[in-house]
Amino acid sequence: MTDDMTEEHLTADTAEASVELPLAERIEAILFIVDEPIGLVALAAAVGSPVPAVRQTLETLVEDYDGRGAGPRRGFELREVGGGWRLYVREDLDPVVADFVGGQAPARLSQAALETLAVIAYKQPVTRSQVASIRAVNVDSVVRTLLARGLITELFADSETGAINYGTTDALLQHLGINSLDELPPISPLLDDGADGFDEGTIR
């Protein structure tokens, strides 16, 4: 058996073994790693199961997490937002998470975090993919860091794509010592010329 045939055989065995795992476990595994709501069809494709079965399992998970099943209510909930599904911390537990994050967060932001924060501040509302396009790098982990610090927040989900739009918080204004985003320095003088900068409607 050639190396290519062996690799194909192992890949097929792995895929078959994963499908044999309980559907609820496969769905949970995907939900725990997505940064934005995932649509029902995309989720069904990811776990290799029919859409009706995935929909039924999602409804069962919602009841389970809410404590309407055999177990207690969880500290997180499963919500459908903007046509997609995602896990969220329960709203009444936000203070607990904020206190923990505030006590754990280091004093300084990395250069990557500062650059990402600047893009969001000047372009908001802006999606993660738009920020990544501007910076030409993946910004998933940086966005999570800024969310954990309370410097940015999820404003809304796009009604068509489900993509989360981000914006800055009052905490950022406090850190910068300004009262509003209007007090941010104009971006154009920092660029080679205005044509290569942000859109005309950007904060000045």
Nutshell version of this structure?
The chain is about 50% helix and about 15% strand. The protein is an alpha+beta fold and about 200 residues long.
In angstroms, what is the radius of gyration? Answer: 21 Å
Percent of residues in helices comes to: 40-55%
Largest sheet: 3 strands, antiparallel
How much beta, percentage-wise?
A: 5-15%
The total count of strands amounts to 6
Q: First CA to last CA: what distance?
A: 65 Å
Specify the overall morphology.
globular
Q: Average the pLDDT over all residues and give the rounded result.
A: 81
Q: Count the helices. How many? A: 9
SSE sequence, one letter per element: HHEHHEEHHEHHEEH
Structural class by secondary-structure content = alpha+beta
With strands numbered from the N-terminus, the spatial order across the biggest sheet is 1-3-2
Low-confidence regions:
190-198, 200-204
What does this entry look like structurally?
The chain is α+β, with helices and mostly antiparallel strands and 204 residues long. It has helices spanning 3-20, 23-31, 40-47, 51-65, 94-104, 111-123, 128-135, 140-149, 170-176, and strands at residues 38-39, 76-81, 84-89, 126-127, 152-157, 164-168. A hairpin with a 6-residue loop joins β5 and β6. The longest helix has 18 residues, at 3-20. The protein is globular, with a radius of gyration of 21 Å. The termini are far apart. Residues 190-198 and 200-204 have low confidence and may be disordered.
